[in-house]
């Protein structure tokens, strides 16, 4: 069992197979493109917001307490890997969410904030702003702060602060975005 659960890729494949069995077994007559994209949207969204909360509730507050000799373990190994999944989960959340809205026939009305799609439209716009923050503010600044791209120490410090502010902005926006998402009917 330890060998199986020690291999993340195997666990993900097994989880996907189980999900497909449930979809096409127990839920067979009700599976359509929209239900599959809703499921993917939820999976990517949980990954994205989970990592956003990990960075803001765990990594950022803990880093000042980490001894200097241990910080490279986080900044050179953990943070770049987490940021990889963070940014791609953000993009895939937005893409699958737009596909769900398009398949369900409300994408245009929601993005235009037309009734009865105002609530989900606000959520969609908040998610688009958050994803733009991830790709155009957080990621470019984290590359500098983590030394993935060359930068002077002062530029690294400024980039870390900018990334943190953008990340905290996403935490702020995520609360309203999640409300909009779960209360759209």
Task: Please specify the SSE layout and strand pairing.
Layout: H1 2-5, H2 8-26, H3 33-62, H4 71-104, H5 107-111, H6 118-145, H7 153-183
Output mean pLDDT. 96
* Low-pLDDT residue spans: none
Overall number of domains: 2
What characteristic shape results from the CA principal axes?
flat
Sheet of most strands: none
Helix segment tally: 7
Q: Give the end-to-end Cα distance, rounded to a whole number of Å.
A: 41 Å
**Succession of helices and strands:** HHHHHHH
Over all CA atoms, what is the radius of gyration?
19 Å
Residue fraction in strands: under 5%
- In percent, how helical is the residue content? over 70%
Structural class: mainly alpha
Total DSSP E strands: 0
Protein traits:
single chain; 185 residues; mainly alpha; 2 domains; 7 helices; flat
Polypeptide structure, described:
This protein is mainly alpha-helical. It folds into 2 domains: 1-31; 33-183. It has helices at residues 2-5, 8-26, 33-62, 71-104, 107-111, 118-145, 153-183. α3 runs antiparallel to α4, α3 crosses α7 and α6 runs antiparallel to α7 (153-183). The chain is flat, with a radius of gyration of 19 Å. The mean pLDDT is 96.
In short:
The protein contains seven helices and no strands. It has helices spanning 2-5, 8-26, 33-62, 71-104, 107-111, 118-145, 153-183.
């Amino acid at each position: 069992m330890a060998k199986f659960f020690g291999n993340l890729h195997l666990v993900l494949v097994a989880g996907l197979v189980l999900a497909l069995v449930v979809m096409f077994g127990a839920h067979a007559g009700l599976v359509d493109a929209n239900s599959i994209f809703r499921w993917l949207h939820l999976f990517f969204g949980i990954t994205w917001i989970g990592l956003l909360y990990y960075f803001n509730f765990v990594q950022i507050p803990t880093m000042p307490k980490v001894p200097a000799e241990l910080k490279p373990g986080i900044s050179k190994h953990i943070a770049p890997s987490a940021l990889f999944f963070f940014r791609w989960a953000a993009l895939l959340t937005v893409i699958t969410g737009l596909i769900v809205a398009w398949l369900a026939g409300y994408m245009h009305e929601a993005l235009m904030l037309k009734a009865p799609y105002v609530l989900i439209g606000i959520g969609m716009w908040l998610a688009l702003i958050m994803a733009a923050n991830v790709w155009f503010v957080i990621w470019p600044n984290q590359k500098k702060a983590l030394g993935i791209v060359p930068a002077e120490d002062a530029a690294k410090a400024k980039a870390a602060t900018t990334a943190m502010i953008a990340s905290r902005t996403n935490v702020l926006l995520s609360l309203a975005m999640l409300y909009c998402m779960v209360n759209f009917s």
